[in-house]
Amino acid sequence: MRRIARRLFCAMAMSELIIATSSFAGTTDFSSIERRLDTECSAGGFSGIVLVTMPAAKPYEHVCGSADLARHVPMTADTRFKLFSTTKTLTAIAVMRLVESGKLKLNAPVIDYIPEAPKEWSGVTIRHLLQHTSGLPDQTERLLAVFKSDHRRAMTTVLAEDRAAGMKPETLPGAVWKYNNFGYELLAAAAANVAHMPFDAVLQTLVFTPAGMNTAIVEKPLYVDGKPGSVPDVNLAQGYNGTADKPEPAVSYEFIQLGAGSVHATAQDFVALDAALKAGKLLRPETLRSMASNLRNSGELDRGPRGYGLGLMVRGTPPLIYVGHDGGNNGFVSDLERYPDGTMLIVMSNFGFAQIEWVRAAVAEALNASGAHSSATRSRS
Predict the structure, then answer these.
(1) Mean pLDDT, 10 residues at a time, over the chain (381 residues)?
(2) What kind of fold does domain 87-211 have according to CATH?
């Protein structure tokens, strides 16, 4: 009976379901994706937005669920989500803009830009940090433990302890791929130092504003009576952990992972980002190509032309390989993918338990079936 009651509760919450599906100018068939999303939304397995934009075609959009189950707030296309690790692509874009301007060098040691770092890290470069091949331990938990007011002071404390201990990389820099959130905190610190501004301002100046990401923000800390929290974001969906039968409100402190996961954004922010990248407003074409080149074997992405580049994951099955990044942890999941024909996919959910991996593969399958990839390949040759 309890399980039935929980399902009824979820069904009532999902009665605020919103679904908006546009017609297509092209021949790409998303009907199977639509059916599965309908099913998962109705069963309480997904809440959020799936948006696909395509060249010379109207976008496909599916919005469903609730931005806050307890307050019965409907999900809308303007709802903001925590991106978690999808933030890394935005951090990488900011870093590569600083590389283009000569303020950072990809193959320079990180200690050139963060003098507080241990001298034992002299072999760790900006490129290694972007590619998760630094060999350094992930010190995110230590960063959380000492975080009292802001990112800069927390990083200073951790680095001082590392320097005093003479901490060395665990593996030879460049030799081993190992996903490392702390590496992106070091990138945030390096970027802030050379740009002479806090990293949230770096993202605003180098990415959000020129890209037209008008509703994207960086989560900020707010301590009350010594307890950690974040500045309220009235447009942010409430995140949930648990299961479809029993969604449980989540609390996360992503301001701690400033370079690795701190951004809140809407789907339209990523439409703007995609357009800005295509127009060359953020990066030179050769720079953007380099971010998806010289890939490192990341274990799960080890077949064919796939792997991890500079803040980008390259995935898919030949002949259709797509580039992007996903993220998710405490109450949210997200995914940004860019396909070779110019199609862009964004998935955002405020259910941390939502399974979204299938969406990117299903979109690729639909594009393959429509011949979009073949047409894109011919037009480029």
Answers:
(1) 31 33 57 96 97 93 97 97 98 98 98 98 98 97 93 96 97 95 98 98 98 98 88 96 97 95 98 98 97 80 72 87 94 96 96 96 89 47 30
(2) Beta-lactamase (3.40.710)
Other beta carbons within 10 Å of 322: 25
- Please check whether the two domains, 2-81+215-380 and 87-211, share a CATH topology: yes
The first and second tokens of residue 164, run together, are: 């005093």
pLDDT at 227: 85
2-81+215-380: what CATH class? alpha beta
Q: What is the 3-state secondary structure (H, E, C) of 305-369?
A: CCEECCCCEEEEECCEEEEEEEEECCCCEEEEEECCCCCEEEEEECECCCCCHHHHHHHHHHHHH
Distance CA 332, CA 42 (A): 18
Residue 294, judged by CB atoms within 10 A of its CB (0-12, 13-18, 19+), counts as exposed
Concatenated DSSP letters for 95-141? HHHHHHTTSS-TTSBGGGT-TTS-GGGTT-BHHHHHHT-S-----HH
201-211 per-residue burial string, b: 16 or more CB within 10 A, e: under 16: ebbbebbbeeb
pLDDT at residue number 321: 87
CA distance 244 to 9: 10
Q: What is the pLDDT of residue 1?
A: 30
CB 81, CB 348: distance < 8 Å: yes
Single out the residue of 90, 339, 289, 84 nearest to residue 209, CA to CA. 90
How is the chain split into domains, by residue range? 2-81+215-380, 87-211
- The burial class, CB within 10 Å (0-12 / 13-18 / 19+), for 175 is exposed
Which residues lie below 8 Å from residue 196, measured CB to CB, with a gap of 6+?
A: none
